[in-house]
């Protein structure tokens, strides 16, 4: 039986060919910034329902690391691979953002970091 939207908000999981997919909803308050973090071995897919949250990563491919801000709109998807340092921001001073998050682990893993670089990341 497919998971219904009301079930997804409760953190039920769906078995997929590749393992487990755990959907959840989240409200991101106006003028909010998360701390820098990663989600361990969990793959994370985010669908933007409303608002314009930003997702911030560090591009380390060039001569100098550059902070990259991915600005989103309703209908956009963001994929965060395992162990990738990032942070979420909702810069709108008045409107919350609503997102649906799907992870490949039942546990919502959050490993807090001082920065966006990889110096604190232990890949297991």
CATH homolog superfamily: Jelly Rolls
Q: What's the total number of strands?
A: 11
Number of domains as seen in the coordinates: 1
Mean pLDDT: 84
Helix-strand category: mainly beta
Strand content: 35-45%
- The low-confidence runs, each spanning 5 or more residues with pLDDT under 50, are 1-16
What's the SSE pattern? HEEEEEEEEEEE
Would you identify the CATH architecture? Sandwich
CATH class category: Mainly Beta
Radius of gyration: 15 Å
Task: Enter the CATH topology name.
Answer: Jelly Rolls
Ends distance: 34 Å
Q: Count up the helices.
A: 1
Shape type: globular
Strand order of the largest sheet: 1-2-10-5-8
Helix content: under 10%
The biggest beta sheet is recorded as: 5 strands, antiparallel
